[in-house]
Write a structure and sequence with these properties.
The chain contains no helices and 11 strands. The strands form 2 sheets. Strands 2, 4, 5, 6, 9, 10 and 11 form a 7-stranded mixed beta sheet that branches. The protein has a 4-stranded antiparallel beta sheet with strand order 1-3-8-7, with no helix packed on it. It has 119 residues and is mainly beta.
Length: 119
Amino acid sequence: QVQLVESGGGLVQPGGSLRLSCAASGFIFVGWFRQAPGKARENVACMSRGDNSAIYSDAVEGRFTISSDRANNIVYLDMNDLKPEDTARYHCAVPHPMAACGSWQFGQWGKGTQVTVSA
């Protein structure tokens, strides 16, 4: 299995920012997902392998940015203007090898990092 390690979560006030990191052995075009207690997994962001463009869910569009450091095998999720409804455990995941990121076909998850947005 691919090792995926997320980090950077924590407690932040509404309107604040956090940077999440997903580190792997070798560069992987991981996508980001989140899941709150009692709710289904939600798509967050992914990178297109063809042109390096990004796709975001409607809930985070304009506030979150996905980027990468290929040399260090890291994919970042920069989160700005955080809202209480962003509270969730955030996971990165390995894409299906035949799928474009916008199809949201991802498999293996990392263990995740908790983001809590609260005053």
